[in-house]
Write a structure and sequence with these properties.
The protein is an alpha/beta fold and about 200 residues long. The chain contains seven helices and seven strands. The protein has a single domain, classed as Maf protein. Strands 1, 2, 3, 4, 5, 6 and 7 form a seven-stranded mixed sheet that branches. About 35% of the residues are buried.
Length: about 200
């Protein structure tokens, strides 16, 4: 039996959980992320609350199907100068965003919510602050083209675990949170509740 059902198709999150020794089953949740996000933004919700709501919607969707065990929903959003940034719409959009962010700070919020049955039993939103170096136009354009297959589904147009680390001059926060999962906090919860061995 699985320790956890991951309501996501994210290979990165699945790998992080498996590498930590968890038995997981990945069951992608189909939710209208744009509708949820747009509604919350229209109401003036903060980026961390948007990430939390999206993570909960995914966990709730899979849990509502009557699955047995704990269901983990996750989401990540980027806050840049008060703007909520999600996945980019193409290479040109990614390059434009990277050019806007260079030499400036932004924050990543990675939310995780666990459902058991029909209710949430745990949640956490991790935050990491990043400072992007003042890269040249040429480097950013070549970076996006060279890495497009990998970064096309990444918030902010980069992956820190790959060449994207070269875009940064400073990172304040937890590495796993940058990857989209507050893993240390999640493992602590699962250990405290007895799902994982103490």
């Amino acid at each position: 039996m699985s320790d956890l059902i991951l309501a996501s198709s994210s290979e990165t999150r699945a790998s992080l959980l498996r590498n930590a020794g968890l038995l997981i089953e990945a069951v992608p949740a189909r939710v209208d992320e744009d509708a949820i996000k747009n509604s919350l933004v229209a109401e003036g919700a903060k980026p961390r609350d948007v990430a939390d709501a999206l993570a909960e919607a995914k966990a709730r969707k899979i849990a509502s199907k009557g699955v047995q065990g704990l269901v983990l929903g996750c989401d990540q959003v980027l806050d840049f100068e008060g703007r909520l940034i999600s996945k980019t719409d193409g290479i040109d959009d990614a390059v434009s965003l990277l050019k806007d962010m260079r030499g400036k700070r932004h924050s990543l919020f990675s939310a995780a919510v666990i459902y058991e049955g029909d209710k949430p039993v745990w949640r956490h939103v991790g935050q990491v602050r990043l400072m992007m170096r003042d890269a040249t136009d040429a480097y950013l354009e070549e970076y996006a083209i060279r890495n497009w297959d990998s970064i096309r589904h990444s918030v902010g147009g980069y992956k820190l675990e790959e060449e994207g680390v070269r875009l940064m001059s400073r990172i304040d926060g937890d590495y796993f949170t940058v990857l989209g999962l507050p893993l240390v906090e999640l493992l602590s919860y699962l250990t405290l509740r007895g799902t994982l061995q103490r």
